[in-house]
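Sequence in, structure out.
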Amino acid sequence: MRQGLPRVPKDRIAVLIGSKGATVKSIREAAGCEDLFINSETGDVEVHWGDAGSYDPVKAMKLPDVIKAIGRGMAPKAAIRLFDDRHFFEMVDLRDFVGKRSNRQRQIRSRIIGSQGKVRRLIENLTDTEITIYKSTVVIIGEEEGLFAARQAIEMLAGGSEHGSVLGYLEKDRRRSKLSSRSLETIELKQQDPTSGGFENLVPGLSEVSDRRSRRMRASQVDPQDETAVAEMMELSDDENIVWEEE
């Protein structure tokens, strides 16, 4: 099966092909396709897939994004990570905010990049993403949650928000993400089988002692006027018995 892929700008064709075809080979191996054809004059790209079942359909769906990311300035090694199930692709078109005016696009690019690339690096570090600015587009690659935050930050800057407001939003979002992650870890720990591990299992008999202590605590809280509760409290557990001794 042949499939047409996004056309690559002429100044990115050599990057897509790579030295002695190394990049094309890496993409072909990562995607699991039979061949990848690139027209070195027009930038047209076409992939040849094998028979159904011989390739991963998810990777087939992601390959156009890989080509598009490289075509819009992303380094091939970063773009190939899109084949990982956890990584996704977003592209922001600055023309949606400032139109086709090249001077306004240049100003927005400068705001996103910052002095010596500082702003872009801060966004990348706070969202665990990779960002590339190419002409009128911004390409973002990363995991889903960080990807959303990074896109929001780019759109805020393109819309005129101050750098302080944008970075404040990202720092707040990162703290929220960390707290959410810790909450999930706590829930997972609580859902674990208590007999599968823990300190009590390391000390012989400690678990039984803990159970008896819990029963005594519950017994001390029984209402003496509640006959049913008193009867249940008086019942012996499997590990309890009555010993009669003469004085």
